[in-house]
Design goal:
By secondary structure, this protein is α+β, with helices and mostly antiparallel strands. Helices cover 35% and strands 22% of the residues. The chain has helices spanning 4-10, 24-31, 55-64, 79-89, 104-113, 122-130, 134-154, 164-177, 239-258, 265-278, and strands at residues 18-21, 41-45, 49-53, 69-72, 94-97, 117-120, 182-183, 188-191, 212-217, 219-221, 224-225, 228-233, 290-292, 299-303, 316-319, 322-325, 329-332, 335-340, 343-346. It has a 6-stranded mixed β-sheet, with helices on both faces. Helix 7 (134-154) crosses helix 8 and helix 9 packs antiparallel against helix 10 (265-278). The longest helix has 21 residues, at 134-154. The two termini are 41 Å apart. The structure holds zinc ion (2 copies). Residues 216, 227, 229, 334 line the site of one zinc ion.
Length: 357
């Protein structure tokens, strides 16, 4: 899968002759070539795409990159030289670059040495990546299934006496075992009072009877991320835990119900937030309802109170409200949904009924 043609089609709209892609996420998106390193540059002109890399990656790049000229840097003929050759050959004048990703140091080198005008154009890539095509959706669903398989199995290990770290380590192992190439992010496993920290780090705390355990995790499969959160109870729950869990679940379902193409991110967020606020927990839901998921674990668009723009069909976002009570516990439930014209499709299949292990 590559998106050279998709980028080329957008050049005119942005008044560009070419697009320079240097950050790992955009290089992967455009070329379909996943390198582990920081080396490599993709360059898309109106009539030819290029992928430049160094000796360490050239064999893999030549095997994997389609629809582009793949060339290797050499001593005295680095990225700047290769880019200037392409710029000269295709009469390129205005080149878009990723102002949201490129370091100031890189920018200064390119600005000084490339024979073209550099134009900030992160937006071109953001707009493209926000709308997933059929192949991307299929890959996102596959990544999601791997995480769900790991969840199903990890539930056998969640019991009093097991530490948060042990659960996190096993989740990582299971996702790799079931086909993940890597984690989308370090798994979050928090239990008991630690659960009130939405992005707490798994520690040596041992799970105790009466705890909620919140697990937020995801994997990368063929370059695309999954993301999900489930909160399970161990032994028993108090009346308050039960009430908070079901408030979060109702909020999540209300947000999902509201989510469709053409609706703004803030309206989706508000549908969920209203339920939590009405239940008296408004101040304990301090993050937004959701974020885009794709090549990066957090990408556009957001379903947050300040995202006023309408979301497009084909956008993939998380649906993850939570309630966090300091000193007591926290609950978050997270699915990933695809926005359609008439509603949305929840690609997360794991059950959300309160599970007491
Ligand atoms: Zn998550
Ligand atoms: Zn998330």
């Amino acid at each position: 899968m590559n998106h050279f043609a998709a980028v080329r089609e957008k050049l005119n709209d942005h008044g560009l002759d070419a697009m320079l892609l240097t950050c790992a996420a955009n290089r992967y998106y455009v070329s379909g070539f996943a390198s582990t390193g920081t080396d490599g540059v993709a360059f898309v002109t109106r009539d030819q795409a290029y992928y430049f890399t160094d000796f360490r990656y050239i064999e893999a790049a030549k095997a994997q990159v389609r629809d582009a000229v793949v060339e290797m840097t050499k001593s005295g003929r680095g990225y700047v030289a290769l880019l200037n050759e392409a710029i000269g050959k295709h009469g390129v004048k205005r080149v878009g670059y990723e102002d949201a990703y490129m370091t100031v140091a890189e920018y200064n080198i390119y600005r000084e040495k490339l024979n073209c005008e550099l134009v900030p154009a992160t937006g071109l890539m953001t707009q493209l990546r926000m709308v997933k095509d059929a192949e991307e959706l299929q890959t996102l669903i596959s990544a999601q299934r791997i995480a769900e398989k790991a969840l199903e199995e990890i539930c056998n290990d969640i019991r009093a006496g097991v530490s948060e770290k042990e659960i996190a380590a096993k989740l990582t192992y299971l996702m790799l075992r079931y086909g993940a190439q890597n984690m989308s992010f370090d798994p979050i496993v928090v239990s008991g009072a630690n659960g009130s920290m939405p992005h707490g780090v798994p520690g040596d705390r041992k799970i105790a009877p009466g705890d909620f355990v919140t697990m937020d995790f995801g994997c990368i499969y063929r370059g695309y991320c999954s993301d999900m959160t489930r909160t399970v109870a161990v032994g028993h729950v108090t009346e308050e835990m039960d009430r908070v869990y079901h408030t979060v679940l109702r909020a999540q379902l209300a947000g999902i119900e509201r989510a469709k193409a053409g609706v703004s991110g803030c309206d989706i967020d508000a549908a969920a937030r209203d339920i939590i606020t009405k239940a008296g927990y408004g101040e304990y839901f301090g993050h937004s309802f959701g974020h885009g998921v794709g090549v990066e674990i957090h990408e556009a668009p957001n379903a947050s109170p300040n995202h006023k723009e309408a979301l497009p069909a084909g956008a993939v976002i998380s649906a993850e409200p939570g309630i966090y009570l300091p000193g007591k516990f926290g609950v978050r439930i997270e699915d990933v949904i695809v926005l359609r014209e008439n509603g949305c499709e929840d690609i997360t299949e794991a059950p959300k009924k309160l599970l007491i292990l």
